[in-house]
Write a structure and sequence with these properties.
The structure is a single chain. The N and C termini lie far apart (53 Å). The longest helix has 22 residues. Helices cover 31% and strands 15% of the residues. By secondary structure, it is of the alpha+beta class. A three-stranded antiparallel sheet has the order 2-1-3. A hairpin with a 4-residue loop joins strand 1 and strand 2.
Length: 86
Amino acid sequence: MCRPAIPDPHPWEVAVQYWFNVSTGQVETDDTRSRGADVMGPYASEAEAAKALDTARAKTETWDEQDREWDAKGSTPPHGGDEPSA
């Protein structure tokens, strides 16, 4: 049985966002967030923000592997390259 969604009792309140400061290694909130390029985020939880560097590292490794696979296939255009473009 599906229950109807219960509306947020305070729709004007925005959920707290969390940020990871790469200079200090600390998690910050919207209220304590540093300015500039020293922060990564936003993240939905303090725990997500705390593992920001691990998440970024894992994504970079995945993207690097995808790049290596793409490069191994060569740079042949999808239609063989001999056809004139429309």
